[in-house]
Design a protein that fits this description.
about 300 residues; alpha/beta; 2 domains; seven-stranded mixed sheet; five-stranded parallel sheet
């Protein structure tokens, strides 16, 4: 056993770093473990983050780490393998076998996107191909875009993309889209064409320009979004018994505590927008909730 902390934060994205910063500001002893495998590593810039203009994800993380460390947090690049124990006495074990004890645990482990296996998609991912309408929709205003997806939520995704462009083609990549009648009517109402033929590849020079179909025909595009599915970035909350919905999104209360006492969660693994600024806000709110939970009884009035 290496040491004892008030809080261990698992995940070094905006949620985890904001939490570590504020926990340290509250003079709590905090250790953050970061696997250094962020969800937005493919993205060219973080958009709409107040006070920062089009900052690269790696730069935002660098600045966040510096702020948290300066406030007193300890940060280590390591993968957490296991969390066990109960409130006020958790044991967190990392990949090399070392363990630390802590009173509270905060999961800021985010989500993992399922990308369609289409040749060319990875070549442009983060540079003309994206998955987040909120983040990157404003960058394609007025452009001709393709949307790849086939689940029940794909029509709602297309409706959101209409905020920025009315030139949208939906590609189901050979699948039968799970579209209720109301969804199909919405697509028809806004002239969103549905192409069911499988995609052979995505082509372009610096950015995607063509979606080539299996039969050889091409659809011209200026940008592509995909909306398939995503899952939790870590299975540990489920192993601990934290309640979640069918998508793995954790249930938390107003202080961001999960259904397991002493286990908290913030960021994309909780309900709400997937924006970086929202994740940072969630991490801050979780830190406040943890701080209040650790106040000694004689200071509670």
């Amino acid at each position: 056993m290496e040491d004892t902390y008030d809080v261990v934060v698992i995940g070094g994205g905006p949620a985890g770093l904001a939490a570590a910063l504020w926990l340290a500001r509250y003079r709590l002893r905090v250790r953050l473990f970061d696997s250094a495998d962020p969800r937005n590593r493919w993205t060219g810039a973080v958009h709409g983050y107040l006070g920062l203009e089009e900052v690269e994800p790696a730069e935002l993380r660098r600045v966040g780490r510096e702020q948290a460390i300066h406030a007193g947090a300890e940060i280590e690049a390591a993968c957490v393998e296991e969390v066990r124990g109960e409130i006020d006495d958790f044991v967190v074990t990392v990949g090399d076998g070392r363990s630390v004890r802590c009173r509270r645990v905060l999961f800021a482990t985010g989500l993992r996107d399922i990308r369609p296996e289409i040749p060319g998609l990875d070549d442009f991912y983060g540079n003309g191909i994206w998955h987040c309408a909120d983040c990157d929709g404003p960058s394609v205003t007025g452009q001709r875009i393709g949307v790849i997806g086939w689940g029940r939520q794909i029509a709602a995704f297309c409706m959101q993309m209409l905020t920025w462009t009315d030139s949208i083609t939906l590609f189901t990549h050979g699948r039968d889209a799970e579209l209720p009648a109301r969804s199909r009517e919405a697509l028809d109402r806004f002239d969103i064409r549905v192409v069911t033929e499988p995609i052979e590849r995505i082509e372009g020079d610096e950015r995607p320009e063509r979606i080539v179909l299996q039969e050889g025909e091409s659809e011209m595009v200026e940008a592509v979004f995909f909306h398939i599915a995503c899952g939790p970035g870590s299975s540990m909350p489920a192993a601990l018994g934290c309640e979640a919905n069918e998508e793995g999104i954790l249930q938390v209360d107003r202080d961001y505590e999960t259904t397991v006492p002493g286990i908290y969660a913030a960021g994309d693994i909780t309900r709400g927008s997937r924006l970086a600024i929202h994740a940072a806000a969630g991490g801050t709110r979780a830190a406040i909730g943890i701080y209040r939970s650790l106040l000694p009884a004689e200071r509670r009035v």
